[in-house]
Predict the structure.
Amino acid sequence: MLQQSVDPRHAINDEPLQLSVVIPTKNEAGNVEPLLERLGVALAGIEWEAIFVDDSSTDGTPELLTRIAQSDRRVRLIRRIGRRGLSSAVVEGALASTTPIVAVIDADLQHDEKVLPDLYRAIADKGHELAIGTRYAANGSTGEWAEDRLKISRFATALASPIMKTRLSDPMSGFFAVRRDILLEAAPRLSTVGYKILLDLVASHPRPLKVAEVGYTFGTRQHGESKLDEMVALEYLELLLDKAIGRFVPVKLVQFGAIGMLGVGVHLTLLYMAMNMVGAPFATSQALAVIGAMTFNFALNNKFTYRDQQLKGFAWVGGLFSFYLVCSLGAVANVGIGSLVYEQFHGWWIAGIAGAIVGSVWNYVASSWLTWTK
Ligand code: GDD
Ligand code: MN
């Protein structure tokens, strides 16, 4: 427990703050106090503060932090309601800091806080701009990881290499310190999608950074559970895609288009089944296939492309009908433009593709405005 009289964190003096430690939390009530105690020990001699950024925890984490922060001035809390996302939480915390150096550490004690002073000094004393905790170099280790997770992590790291301007042995690490002005320089270009804020940072900053790497062993979680789920892989791909092509095309449009292609497959399958297995006439079969494909596209876009503003329950049904409406107008645009192009060039497939592209872009723009409005 925290004992204020002997707690080294509580020694308040007039020294300027040197380091802000940003700590993202999502249901970490069991970890917050042990972490603060460990930080107090590890960071003795450095003037530091902790900035917690909590995303709608339901296990009492923000209430606990509020109580702690009332008596401990080294603890600050940013509470976000409804929003979710590790990267954006970290960025928000870092932007709220005023210290020259900002560090980021997980709340769940899996990052070794004893390495923090090394990260800090690499920047404060040795002139580096960024210092990362790494599991893949300098005596670092992944600890008790299963072979599968190791393979996935290595594969993800390899995928990242084309977009990294600064070479890092462990770009997936969420454990690092950075000069605040460097972070501010990168901030306008950050994607802040998903988990990988360090990768986002080195991909978004306009030039390679002077980086130091300090090894650490990834610990095993004691309390609470990991928030990594199936969506994390998708969010990772979104980050890579956004960094690679985001300046030219929105990632959501690419996802929308990819789902649209799958929708064409659904359409043809349904058409085939209705005609050949049920024996329905073409017009009926085609109508069924259109409705099936639209429903499929709506459901998938709602689950993936627009999962940040996902519709549920009644809103799902309302959204579906607005999507039907959008797509009907899209079909009109598709046929109209297709016919125009056909009259000009007489190439049936050019006309077909032109119509499909215009129709799809319409569907994308109009549905983002009518169906997923939040
Ligand atoms: N505010 C906020 N919002 N915090 C979150 C969210 C969120 O949506 N999701 C997770 N967190 C917090 C957790 O409470 C924890 O403190 C930290 O972010 C890491 O989350 P975990 O769910 O424990 O992730 P992990 O252990 O699987 O992933 C760690 O290892 C990765 C490398 O393999 C993290 O350190 C990642 O940053 C790192 O990339
Ligand atoms: Mn963890």
